[in-house]
Amino acid sequence: MDEQIPIAVTLREIIQETPSIKTFVFDREVTARPGQFVMVWVPGIDEIPMALSSPSSITVQKVGDATAALFGMQEGDRIGIRGPYGNGFTLTGRTLAIAGGVGASPLLPLVAAGQVDVFLLGARTASELLFADRIREMATLMVATDDGTAGHHGFVTDLTSRVDFADFSGICVCGPEVMMAAVLGILDREGYADRGEFSLHRYMKCGVGLCGSCCIDPHGLRVCRDGPVFSGDVLLKSEFGHYARDASGRRYRI
Question: Is the pLDDT of residue 2 over 60?
């Protein structure tokens, strides 16, 4: 698959994972490393970056026009994809995964490959715990919900007190940026920021490093080319967790 040329794929299956999240399975596989993403073209609407939840699927939460259009599609409809792009995870050895909400999606390929030993999973409520059953089959799972309907009553960051970071050679994290910034702060205080790998989601237009809309200051790191996975010690020196950019390129406080 030529990463620069979009190809048309047919939606073979659509799975309602949670009340707000669906998985879209297409009729061909994308050869990619865990953590890489594809640009998804929704005909007549927009093209958006999406992490792969398997070689032939993306898992999506409805948050804007393009994802709303996806949610309105049926099995047999067609979308365009190009990629994969980005660097992916580089974890080896014993691994801890930490995810919030739909952030479990790019971590699922690591779980499927047997690369995750312990998984901390958070969501607003029990019905929004994404992939919990599948993760539980492959790793030790701890869950937290904001409303206390499953597991720990609180945030997924609270669960970090139940693990010893020294037991893991790698820590992969994905979720809302505020949550990831909180995890990074904890890792930094404990002296393990360099073991963390964080999968970022930023507004993106091209996916190939030209438009600059996904840059992270002050070093001009491009999420699409230099990421989307970044080491914790790199993010400590950036605006991560504080600012992002909108469609016009204007910075706004997170």
Answer: no
